[in-house]
């Protein structure tokens, strides 16, 4: 479990950074008028990176939640977060994406990732 837990911590941190990067890009670049995304140069590489990390993260996160049973985190949230990461990875590059819905998706992803990170730290403190 220790090796998996360390990997889960790394992947969670990476997803937090990717979510933040997508949010920043969306708010600071995409929302400007006349923006046209370069699908193969920007969108696809970013989406592929998010998919690789989130696909590796999901089973580790689900297993952790099932084993540890944190009080405020459930396996279904892991699945929803995985799905939301795919939305973030693609829709963040398109100006027609609704601002309010996209901001809520960023917040939802960040909330679950922060909850998981906090539970991982708490679990580590219990073990030590």
From TrEMBL:
SUPFAM superfamilies: YppE-like (SSF140415). Keywords: Coiled coil. InterPro entries: YppE-like, YppE-like_sf. Pfam families: DUF1798. It comes from the Bacteria. The keyword 4Fe-4S does not apply. Residues 1-28 form a coiled coil. This is YppE family protein. It comes from Alkalihalophilus sp. As8PL.
């Amino acid at each position: 479990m220790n090796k998996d837990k360390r990997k889960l911590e790394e992947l969670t941190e990476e997803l937090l950074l990717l979510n933040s990067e997508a949010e920043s890009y969306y708010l600071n670049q995409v929302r400007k008028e006349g923006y046209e995304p370069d699908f193969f140069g920007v969108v696809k590489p970013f989406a592929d990176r998010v998919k690789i990390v989130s696909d590796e993260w999901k089973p580790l996160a689900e297993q952790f939640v099932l084993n540890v049973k944190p009080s405020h985190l459930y396996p279904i949230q892991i699945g929803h977060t995985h799905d939301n990461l795919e939305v973030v990875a693609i829709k963040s590059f398109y100006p027609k994406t609704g601002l309010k819905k996209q901001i809520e998706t960023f917040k939802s992803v960040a909330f679950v990732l922060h909850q998981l990170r906090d539970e991982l730290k708490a679990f580590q403190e219990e073990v030590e």
